[in-house]
Amino acid sequence: MRSFWLQQAFDAESASPVPLEHDLRTDVCIVGGGFTGLWTALELKSRDPSVDITIVEADLCGSGASGRNAGFVMTWMSKASTLLKICGGQEGVRLLRESQAAVRAVGDFCDAHGLGGHFRRRGWLWTASNASQLGAWNETVEVLAKHGLEPFDLLESCHVAELGGSDRQLAGVFEGDVATVQPALLARTLARVALAKGVRIHEKTAMTRLGLGSSPVVHTPAARVTADTVVLALNAWAHELPVFRRSVLPIASDVVMTRPIRERLEEIGLHTGIAISDSRLLVDYYRGTPDGRLCFGKSGGAIPFAGRLGRRFDDPSVRREELAREMAYHYPSLAGVDIASAWRGPATRTATGLPHFGRLPGAPSIVYGHGYTGNGVGPSYLGGKILASLVLGAKDEWATSPMVEQRPQRFLPTEPARYLVGRLVLAAVGRKEMAEDAGRAPGRLDTALAGLAPSSLTPVVKN
Ligand SMILES: Cc1cc2nc3c(=O)[nH]c(=O)nc-3n(C[C@H](O)[C@H](O)[C@H](O)COP(=O)(O)OP(=O)(O)OC[C@H]3O[C@@H](n4cnc5c(N)ncnc54)[C@H](O)[C@@H]3O)c2cc1C
Q1: 448 C-alpha to center of ligand 1: Å?
Q2: Is the CB of residue 96 below 6 angstroms from any atom belonging to ligand 1?
Q3: Residue 262 burial (CB < 10 Å; 0-12/13-18/19+)?
Q4: CA angle in degrees (0–180, nearest 5) for 123-125-130
Q5: Closest ligand 1 atom to the C-alpha of 66?
Q6: Could you tell me the distance, in angstroms and rounded to a whole number, from the CA of residue 80 to the centre of ligand 1?
């Protein structure tokens, strides 16, 4: 099932995929044609136009999370506590500022390639939509202030309800540097620009096996690619490789898109393009589109079994009704509104809530970047810089950043515990959050089980 965004992007295209049919040799083989793989290709070309690059993509470029997300182009400010703990003050502040610059860079790319109308920098409202969420941002705001950063405006409650268009928004903070974009158009345009710069792109070409060694070999159904360096830009699908199975957890996130309802959005103020998410663990996130629709998403849909993502991450959303109800919880005036499309995609979770970058243990010619934990549209631009520096063997601030780790940090148990405990925890979190919405105290067992889940916006690194 293609997302609304992908369908819109494909409707405007005539190009056909070119699967790989013959063995080839290349300087850099990038596996995965989402934002990470495509920004890496463009960054490499901008640093050294002579580098020969081949992208192999199992489906179509942008068909993974990159073309299915809600299109929030966020900074790393909401993850500042963790980032500063991992990277230290100086590097942490540099990366936080770079994450703001990344939003501007995505906007510049959109302007330069005719997507200006699909990119709107109207900020992000981070809210509490029930009493248990109040103050979820406090630690982040305090830590940022200690480092001389004040990206969030602290708003009066009445202003939050006005800006968010609903009395359900009890309190919140606003970050002006965040934007929204049509993500699939961005991904498809990145692919088109990469092709124009001489990058070979083979879609409908899955890596079936990876041969390690000083010249790694990417095996695909019909042919092999031998490369000096391989970049694994697989995000959620990295979980299918045993080496990453315990360090990155795919979690399906579901999205519904309404039919155009411009007047109703104008009444509640969501027509501007402001991005909003609350502070629950199974986060509710939403934004208006330039053509007057509401795009509404919720995390926590499904987890993989035995290391395979399978169809449950690609099928039409099974949570369509649940999301429609949740939308009406926040905006009673939108109850019963027509849903034009409902889909799902694989988001990821790491131990820290931040992505992992590095060289494959024992195979330094293979580098990887994945695990953006619901915040990859903006940060994948920085992922491209980090991966390009690793590929080129640069000794710059990107390659030497503490974001580049020696070994992926494991936090997941093995199967069957991973699946069984994961299902139990997700169900408990759902019940706990329903009770909190209703103003009831959640059950003790649900609270205890929910405590096993790392949060996506609040800090998760322990001192
Ligand atoms: C529903 C949803 C909503 C989200 N909302 C937001 C949001 O609003 N803002 C935000 O910042 N982030 C959001 N995210 C996260 C964001 O979409 C991702 O962090 C980002 O797209 C990651 O890009 P990527 O290129 O690393 O991964 P992907 O776009 O997933 O790319 C990985 C690619 O690898 C390919 N692949 C897989 N296996 C193979 C193989 N064996 N061989 C070759 N290719 C393979 C896949 O087909 C895929 O195209 C959301 C995610 C989801 C699922």
Answers
A1: 31
A2: no
A3: middle
A4: 170
A5: 21
A6: 22
Model pLDDT for residues 243-289, shown as the tens digit of each residue: 999 999 999 999 999 999 999 999 999 999 999 999 999 999 999 99
Q: What is the CA radius of gyration of the chain?
A: 21
391 CB near ligand 1 (under 6 Å): no
pLDDT at 66: 98
Query: Helices 183-196 and 4-11, interaxial angle, to 10°?
Result: 40
Q: State which amino acid sits at residue 434.
A: M
Residue type, 336: G
- Closest atom, ligand 1, to C-alpha of 36: 25
The pairing of strands 249-258 and 53-56 is unpaired
For the Cβ of 3 lying below 6 angstroms from any atom of ligand 1, the answer is no
How far is the centre of ligand 1, averaged over its atoms, from the C-alpha of 234 (Å)?
7
CB of residue 67 inside a 6 A radius of ligand 1:
no
d(CA 72, CA 83): 20
Write the single-letter amino acid at 79: K
User: What residues of the chain score a pLDDT lower than 70?
Assistant: 406, 454-463
CA atoms lying within 13 Å on the CB side of residue 268: 27
**Which residues are within 8 A (CB) of 112 and not within 5 positions of it... i.e. 6 or more apart?**
none
d(CA 377, CA 397): 21
> How many Å apart are CA 99 and CA 112, to the nearest integer?
20
3-class SS of residue 174: strand
If 0-12 CB within 10 Å is exposed, 13-18 middle and 19+ buried, where does residue 394 land? middle
Distance 2 CA to ligand 1 centre (A): 13
The Å distance, Cα 15 to ligand 1 centre, comes to 22
User: What are 309-314's contacts with CB under 8 Å, separation 24+?
Assistant: 309/236, 309/237, 309/239, 309/240, 309/250, 309/346, 312/252, 313/236, 313/250, 313/252, 313/344, 313/345, 313/346, 314/1, 314/344, 314/345
Pairing of strands 249-258, 294-298: antiparallel
Question: What is the pTM for the complete model shown?
Answer: 0.96
Distance 68 CA to ligand 1 centre (A): 8
| Residues near 307 by beta carbon (within 8 Å), at least 6 away in sequence | 239, 240, 242, 245, 415
Which ligand 1 atom is at minimum distance from the Cα of 275?
A: 8
Q: Which candidate, 295, 66, 272, 282, places its Cα nearest to that of 189?
A: 66
Report which protein residue has its CA nearest ligand 1's atom 32: 234
* pLDDT score, position 453: 81
From the CB of 218, is ligand 1 less than 6 Å away? Answer: no
